[in-house]
Amino acid sequence: VILSRAASSLFWMGRYVARAEFTADLVEATLRLDTLAVRPAGQEAWTSALAVTGMGVTYSGRIEPAEVSRYLLLAPDNPNSSYSCIDSARSNARAVRAALSREASLAINQSWIRLQSRREVCGVEDIPKLVDEIKGSARGFEGATNRLLRNEAQFFLALGAAIERANGTARLLDVKYHLLLPGGERVGGTVDRDQWTGLLRAVSALAAYRWLYREGLKPSLVAELLVLRDEFPRSLMACLEQTVGLLNRISCRIGRESEADRIATRLLEELRNTSGPKLIRGGLHEFIVRFLGDLTKLNGAISAQFGFR
Amino acid sequence: MQLSNAFDEFAAIGQAIDPRVREIADWLRATPLAELRERQSVAERAFRQIGITFRVYGDDDAAERIIPFDVIPRVFTSREWEHLSAGLEQRVGALNAFLADVYGDQRILADRVIPAELVLGNPQFANCVAGITPPGGIFAHICGIDLVRTGPTDFHVLEDNARTPSGASYMLENREAMLRICPELFASQSVCPVDSYPDLLLEAMRSVAPQRGCSEPNCVLLTPGPFNSAFYEHSFLADSLGIELVEPADLEVRDDIVWMHTVAGPLRVDVIYRRIDDAYLDPLVFRADSLLGVAGLIGAYRAGNVALVNAPGTGVADDKAIYSYMPEIIRYYTGQDPIIPNVETHRCREPGALAYTLDRLDQLVVKPVDGSGGYGMLVGPAASRAELDAFRAILLAEPHRYIAQPTLALSTVPTLGEAGLVPRHVDFRPFVVSAADRVSVAPGGLTRVALRDGSLVVNSSQGGGTKDTLVLSSDHEHSPCAGQSSPAALEKRSQPAGGRP
Hints:
- The complex is a heterodimer.
- Chain A is mainly alpha-helical.
- Helices cover 71% and strands 0% of the residues of chain A.
- Chain A contains 14 helices and no strands.
- Chain A has helices spanning 4-35, 43-52, 65-73, 82-95, 102-116, 126-146, 152-178, 190-202, 206-212, 219-228, 236-254, 259-272, 276-282, 284-305.
- In chain A, helix 4 (82-95) runs antiparallel to helix 5 and helix 5 (102-116) packs antiparallel against helix 6 (126-146).
- The longest helix of chain A is centred in the N-terminal third of the chain and has 32 residues, at 4-35.
- By secondary structure, chain B is of the alpha+beta class.
- Chain B has helices at 9-14, 19-30, 33-50, 78-102, 107-110, 116-120, 168-181, 183-188, 197-207, 231-241, 297-302, 315-318, 320-323, 326-334, 351-359, 385-397, 487-494; strands at 69-76, 142-151, 154-161, 219-222, 244-246, 251-254, 257-262, 265-268, 271-274, 307-309, 346-347, 364-368, 378-379, 402-406, 412-417, 420-429, 431-434, 439-441, 446-450, 464-471.
- In chain B, helix 3 crosses helix 7 and helix 4 (78-102) crosses helix 14.
- Mean pLDDT of chain B is 87; it is low at 56-62 and 482-501.
- Classes of the chains: A mainly alpha, B alpha+beta.
- The interface between A and B is medium-sized, with 29 and 24 residues.
């Protein structure tokens, strides 16, 4: 059986790497919203990106693509920046190196070495390159961890990643709430649709949407895809199914079940009992706020159950 | 400048009668310099990416550094190795016998072979474990014996490391790197593999596990944590041994039993390979101000419920003041002369030796008896007038804290320098593993090299680097590759106390 401290490190490593990737996705989505829309969302897009990472209040720089991107991707003083996340993931990896394969340690250390030497974003054209690099790092790490021995160590790593992915998808969806439509634009109009398209594209979900829905782009269907469709691996449903499954496997191994299992199962049940139109009617933003609160509770229950410190 | 009279090991290899040995020197001649450089940088890049780093205390800028790696290996012939391993087994056997004695009957003190106050008044003497015999009578399961060479057949023991010697990970990682970057070297030569080391270690740990009717003892490696300078080695070894890497906060002692906190609750621990110094092991016994450590650990050890590898109190055997008595200690317990002699050592606690030392301070190396890592020592020939004067004052104030040794012409091995191949001084740390019933030496070790021109200080904290150490195997019946003690030594050690069945 795995040490509580090691489980905690692995869990947080999973979360941090997934968060580094989410932040990169967010910057990519924001860049699209800013530049690809018929009428650019402009500053609004960058302000909402800061808001969904919870750093809106802390950020004091100019609202300008390269500057905000630097803050979100590279800033050491932003604890949620991709760099800070990779740095924390690496510290955790160091502490539990024995539980990781050489490839997994190597992947995280290499990403850290590459990111650590980058301090600036050189103009807007540099942003996609940096985003791709971070996404590539996260994919490389995920690939290496998929080849780990299927034991508790891997379960905790995957558990952290699943919870953080749910967290990220929910927050990305919330970007749309923070984005006001320009005056004269109506819900369901061109700009509204472009904004949804931008979001989908950033999470590589545009093709999935077209595949699953023959109709045109509808907000309630986008919400359904990102929240409820378990075919889409980053949907809240898929992440929670994975979470429940992993918690079950861990409980089986150590022979007891408790609070975390119950919370996760309840959350999954709630998702199964809702629908796209219901989500929109009840207020997507309100749903997301509640969901994020539930994830925090789940995280607390996991910490308590497995003796994390 | 190198010491002009230093023995160069590659020159000797080049002149060897055995053509297989000469091949190594030929390989070095035949490989272009640029090629060697390229390979070396590949290896160093790999070390950095894997994160094989160490920390230097008090040096914030270089919080994480890699130890420089030199691509040109150091070579021992099978004949040299047989001699060395016999000497190492003899020495470590005597060292463990000495520890069992001073923490037991203290015969050696009663027989006045060694001054009693040097042992009993030694800060490293652990009263809290006196009277306890650990399983198999083994105190120092892992010893790193530092050797230097001054001539074709002249080896000396420079110091014994019987507490928590480090460096084994470099022995293993350097070999890993060499196999990747210089495969041809291993294709044409039969080199003894070093990867038996983790197996030897695990076997030794299991051999000393307390008996509690369970088939599989739970062995762990105890580290101070990721901020320790040797943390990489701790995690590497835990990984190689397939055991948990635990920090003090992961352990708890209840009713003299050690438990570790797992996600499934507490799990009993049987053997702890601890990489924490005695002083920080147990705040109840050693330093009450220590935040490190596991409260009650020594109690559990005393109760026989957990084995500590190495046992507490081994520092009394590797102290440099005791070191000077090692030849007497070896004779006392084995009845034989030391196979590998000590370096000539003057104990400054003795008035004659102090006068001798003060007279020739600029020619001698003076070391604190309780120091390690190259800190607090004086290298006379390299010191300035002012440094010599300052050290003289220190020495006069506390002579008992120092020993003096001649400046040895350490052997040199070609090393890749900016100007090409240059001779650089080396020392050598092989690792000796003592299980309950046998002593083994891993066929290899850590060769440290002083990278600065003329320097004799090889410590990694003082600008030293490392090399791979190749032990060539022989066609003889008793291959040194086995890494085990000779049958005779084995028989002697495993002799049951109570007669034969």
